[in-house]
């Protein structure tokens, strides 16, 4: 039976694998296909619409374009690098830095409501911006 810590590592590892696979395929053969169910159903973008294109622009060193498409692309890229780095260190050195970082972030967001609310407001503002610019 998997512990909560092992489930976190397994789920995060699988998500990272498929995320990297998607980015690799999209990088090799860019498409205009949207996978977002919100945009497909409503015609309006969700807050994270454009994240793949933003990361694609980052990989091509088009930083301003990446920010313009969706600033969450920078956040997602930084998180992916951090997560993969911590998980690799944990795997190599048999540590639990990623798990401890995850727990710290979780506890911080639960105890500091102002921070959680601020992040939600930023996400909503990004969503409004995505809609305004017709993403």
TrEMBL record:
<feature type="transmembrane region" description="Helical">
    <location>
        <begin position="114"/>
        <end position="131"/>
    </location>
</feature>
<protein>
    <submittedName>
        <fullName>DUF2752 domain-containing protein</fullName>
    </submittedName>
</protein>
<dbReference type="InterPro" id="IPR021215">
    <property type="entry name" value="DUF2752"/>
</dbReference>
<keyword id="KW-1133">Transmembrane helix</keyword>
<feature type="transmembrane region" description="Helical">
    <location>
        <begin position="7"/>
        <end position="25"/>
    </location>
</feature>
<keyword id="KW-0472">Membrane</keyword>
<feature type="transmembrane region" description="Helical">
    <location>
        <begin position="67"/>
        <end position="93"/>
    </location>
</feature>
<keyword id="KW-0812">Transmembrane</keyword>
<dbReference type="Pfam" id="PF10825">
    <property type="entry name" value="DUF2752"/>
</dbReference>
């Amino acid at each position: 039976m998997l512990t909560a810590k092992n489930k976190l590592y397994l789920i995060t590892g699988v998500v990272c694998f498929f995320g990297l696979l998607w980015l690799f395929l999209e990088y090799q053969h860019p498409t205009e296909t949207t996978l977002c169910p919100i945009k497909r159903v409503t015609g309006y973008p969700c807050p994270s619409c454009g994240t793949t294109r933003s990361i694609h622009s980052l990989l091509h060193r088009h930083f301003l374009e990446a920010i313009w498409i969706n600033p969450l692309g920078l956040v997602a890229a930084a998180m992916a690098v951090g997560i993969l780095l911590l998980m690799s260190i944990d795997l190599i050195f048999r540590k639990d830095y990623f798990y401890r970082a995850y727990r710290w972030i979780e506890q911080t967001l639960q105890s500091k409501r102002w921070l959680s609310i601020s992040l939600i407001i930023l996400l909503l503002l990004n969503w409004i911006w995505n809609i305004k610019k017709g993403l």
